[in-house]
Amino acid sequence: MRTVHVIGAGFAGLTVSLRLAQKGFQVELYETGNRVGGLLGTDQTEHGIAERAANALIRTEKAEQLFQELGITPSLPLDSSKKRFLFRGIPKAWPLSFMETVVTIARVVPQILLRGKKGFKPQAGETLQTWGERHLGKIPTRFILGPAMQGIYGNEITNLSASLILGPIFSQTKKGKYKGLLTGPGGMQDLVNHLEQRLHELGVKIHLNAQIKLEDLQGPVVVATSAKAAAELTRVRYPSIAQVLSRIQMSSLMSVTLFFAKAQDKFKGFGCLIPRGFDLKALGVLMNSYIFKDRDKTYNETWILGGSKEEQLLDLSDTELLKLIAEERFRILGQKDSLLDYRINRWKKALPYYNLQLEESLADLQEVELPKDLHLHGNYLSGIGLSKILERSDLIAEKIASQHE
Ligand SMILES: Cc1cc2nc3c(=O)[nH]c(=O)nc-3n(C[C@H](O)[C@H](O)[C@H](O)COP(=O)(O)OP(=O)(O)OC[C@H]3O[C@@H](n4cnc5c(N)ncnc54)[C@H](O)[C@@H]3O)c2cc1C
Asked: N or C: which end of the chain has fewer CB within 10 A?
């Protein structure tokens, strides 16, 4: 049986190992930490669960299939989560005035009629901000596009790459209808546990606390770590690849879950995104108790802060951070409630910065000829979200299988 080595047991490493094992490969999975899951994980508290990073996957066909084959009954969003807020002085379901909406429609509709979807295709080297202002105008870019993208990529749109983020929409051949999200009933740790269990059943050998060197491995290797760790791993054996990878910038993000004595019910919905320019640090808040069922034992919210311009926030003490959030929560939601418990997860330099530098680095990576036995995987390559990572796991496993038939 052919052996494949997978380095990194985050969602990318776990799912590619699953697909490879299902194709009959002997998989050796190496993880430097003492647990699998990487950024994914769920803390149990006496008030309910607190997600460490991601709270759900986009409900694509592949995601649904994964849950089904692992025997997880997915937890789907509640109806209350359909409402989403954008902050403009107060949380609003639609942040534009009547006139601003008319102006935006008058700008967008002719472009659709004249050039169709193609006319919106981003240009290489264009930021999301430039793309937005070109197609939608300044106001919708600031109050809708900006906060929405910053909520996903954890950074302001002034430097985010339009072609990396929006490009895939234009190259998709089959577009499925957006069906919302899904997670495990006990949170994302449910998914991690089921993946780990299935890998054991399939005979995958998981090596925790592993200090592995690429140069010691023979045969196909999947490097499924962050870009930063991938640069370090490839440094000796593939210096030209390492050089490109080391130029990818990483950014920091923090999730702060707060459990309150009283539920706020003034704004019931998925959460609220916060545009820049209001002198607020928070990027957004998720109203967990209104998103998934069984999360309302004690009303809780998750606040997201950080990004490359606000890295220093991750150095605040818990007390300083809680004070900052309490002040901003009062300005945003108008709420002052007593806090019962909290969980803070500081993810330093953990996420790829989807900026123009990443766009350049990925273009350079295409120029460097990757050795046949080296496969790069992770959230810096074809999307930061879990459903995109899952798609790439399938592709990599298929490629390795076709090379070793
Ligand atoms: C606050 C936050 C909220 C998010 N929310 C969402 C969301 O709601 N939905 C969504 O789809 N995505 C979300 N994301 C993004 C998503 O969680 C990540 O993109 C994804 O989990 C990354 O998975 P990965 O396997 O690529 O990387 P990682 O999870 O970083 O895993 C990489 C693994 O490699 C290991 N490793 C590193 N170096 C080595 C080495 N030398 N040898 C062996 N192992 C090594 C690491 O220890 C780690 O376990 C969020 C991220 C954050 C931070």
From this structure: C
